[in-house]
Amino acid sequence: MSGPRAGTPAEARKLLGGSGKRGALPGGASWMAVGAAAIVVAALLLVTGIFAAGFLVVGTMIVASIGLYAWSRSVEGARSAKDRMMSMGIASAFALAMIPLASLLWTVVSKGINRFDVAFFTESARGVIGAGGGASHAIVGTLVITGIATLISVPIGLMAAIYLNEYGGTSRLRRALTFFVDVMTGIPSIVAGLFAYALFEIFFGPGIRLGIMGSVALTVLMIPIVIRSSEEILKIVPNHLREASYALGTPKWKTITKVVLPTALAGLVTGIMLAIARIVGETAPLLVTTGVIDSMNANAFDGRMQNLAVYAYNEYKNPGVPPEPSFDRAWTAVLVLILIVMLLNLAARWVYRRFGTEIR
Amino acid sequence: MSSIDTTTNAGQLLASSSGGRRRPGDRIFSNLSVLAGITILLLLAGVAIFLVGQAWPAITAATSELPNQESLVSYVAPLVFGTMLAAGLAVVIAVPLATAVALFITHIAPRRLAQPLGYVIDLLAAIPSIVYGLWGIAVLGPASVPVTEWLADKLSFIPFFAGPASVTGRTMFVVGIVLALMILPIVSAVAREVFSQTPKRLQEGAMALGATRWEMIRMTVLPFGRSALISGSMLGLGRALGETMAVAIILSGSGAVTFNLISTDNPSTIAANIALQFPESSGIDVNVLIASGLVLFAITLVVNMAARAVIARSNVQ
């Protein structure tokens, strides 16, 4: 090589870094550091007798980062060493965040599988004290409550998004709505539940519990999600489509219903499915509005109504005798909930990919 | 903004050119959309009005009529403390982790892995809170006991770890970790979005000047994403403040006011207290709980508005 030219970043760094003795660590040095650190930390923990998974993981990450720093510093110099240490630190933090989440999914699947049987989906919990019984009433309740909430939220949310994007312009109502939708996004779910209770108490008296109250509470949580996602999608519908439609003399409302909405349809459906996935597992607002019940009730306007999330909570909180069958049912309910959420997410993505118009 | 204006103008132009008045279809449709907007404002006003209405009996009641003969303020204050402590702890744990997760996905992980990883993180945001709660009490709580015992043994001079350690793991410490996991996807989604938008020319410029990858991140990506990180953290804080079920399931709250995170004596939170007490309450107790819910509403409102203000200011720049 002639003159101050560098082929690789390492060589460039060497040139810029100045001082002479710069080597490089072997490939896979990071993994070696992690392996060595894990062995050292495990040995230390075993010797001191405080072996716990948490200590092992955190200790390994710290020791590996420091060890890698020292190793790299002696071979590659201070700046590379710091780079390696921080990369290792960031990767470790990522792993640290993933471990609990993996554990969570594993726990739900392994414990929930016990009662993932036909009876769980066909029987209710009526009169069940020990083993057996199911959550058919809770599944029906979840579908009814979420369904009604969706039926209320989607038209209102969609029309509001159309207002914001197509009609609002710079009006005061538009600015107020944008601001308050943001505010609404932050309402704690339990407060939404209290609102529904406060509203219905006026008409039906204290202690009222109805399925529809849960739907109203969920509506408060769902509307801002629907508006946000719909607005995003409507925003990226290209203007030349609207202008072409106007140029043909099409009225504005027909332009919206026949041009804008069909173009955005897949995105809108995706947004709505994700919104449903967000509210289907809500527990707190339903605990204070729909109450707890062991038998089937599919009428949202008549008395208490069970749903999966509250069912899981109640089985865990007030187990029967012996408690294990109740716990099993709780885990299965939670597994079903997660499956519903995951399926909705996957389906939403699939819809967007399969039917989404190229409008970006 | 400007594009919306043009279409509105075009629509109006068209409407006015065809006879000076709008067609009935147009009028109905635009009125419907305005109606939807107003409905939402009314709904939000309704939330505030009905909560205040139901909280009013508790606010105006004499101290002797309230549960345990204690004033509303002295009932709510420890709960506010517990709420702040749990949410604060969650943010302290979650923000560095979320930053690292976002950096890992945008700048460190192999390109092939980045998108699936981002997808997994998004999926985690959708897991219902009840699941986190059950996992917290069944897995993390018991797993935390050796750690908290060690902390109580060795680091008890720090007020947070004063001990004695709880043997069940139903502590503020565990609640903080679980809440941190729950808000991690939110904070890291905001951070990821902005980190990936760091101008390429800045990043490449730094690399061309011989910066290592970490130096490039520290000098371009982190400064660029700072305000987004702040607003993302505040959104996470808002979420953690209102989180109910995970806390209600895991924490064995005694209403104490203490910074001790690992003992059996834990402050409860507003939301968890409502979830635990509401089903068995009647009369004035319900009004007291709704009043505490109103306080929670006010706190989250302030936090969220502050977060939006930070976002708005950074957008202007």
What's the arrangement of secondary structure elements?
The complex is a heterodimer of chains A (360) and B (317).
Chain A: H1 9-17, H2 29-48, H3 53-76, H4 78-112, H5 118-122, H6 136-167, H7 172-185, H8 189-204, H9 211-235, H10 239-247, H11 252-279, H12 284-287, H13 308-317, H14 324-355
Helix pairs in contact in A: 2-3, 3-4, 4-14, 6-9, 6-11, 6-13, 7-9, 8-9, 9-11, 10-11, 11-14, 13-14
Chain B: H1 2-17, H2 24-60, H3 72-108, H4 111-125, H5 129-154, H6 172-195, H7 200-208, H8 213-242, H9 245-250, H10 270-277, H11 284-316
Helix pairs in contact in B: 2-11, 3-4, 3-6, 3-8, 3-11, 4-6, 5-6, 6-8, 7-8, 8-11, 10-11
What does this structure look like?
The complex is a heterodimer of chains A (360) and B (317). By secondary structure, chain A is an all-alpha fold. Chain A contains 14 helices and no strands. Chain A has helices at residues 9-17, 29-48, 53-76, 78-112, 118-122, 136-167, 172-185, 189-204, 211-235, 239-247, 252-279, 284-287, 308-317, 324-355. Chain A is flat. In chain A, 48% of the residues are buried. Chain B folds into two domains: 1-60, no CATH class; 70-316, MetI-like fold (Orthogonal Bundle), CATH 1.10.3720.10. In chain B, helix 8 runs antiparallel to helix 11. The longest helix of chain B has 37 residues, at 24-60. The radius of gyration of chain B is 25 Å and the shape is flat. The two termini of chain B are 17 Å apart. Classes of the chains: A mainly alpha (360), B mainly alpha (317). At the A-B interface, helix 1, helix 3, helix 4, helix 6 and helix 7 of A face helix 1, helix 2, helix 3, helix 5 and helix 6 of B.
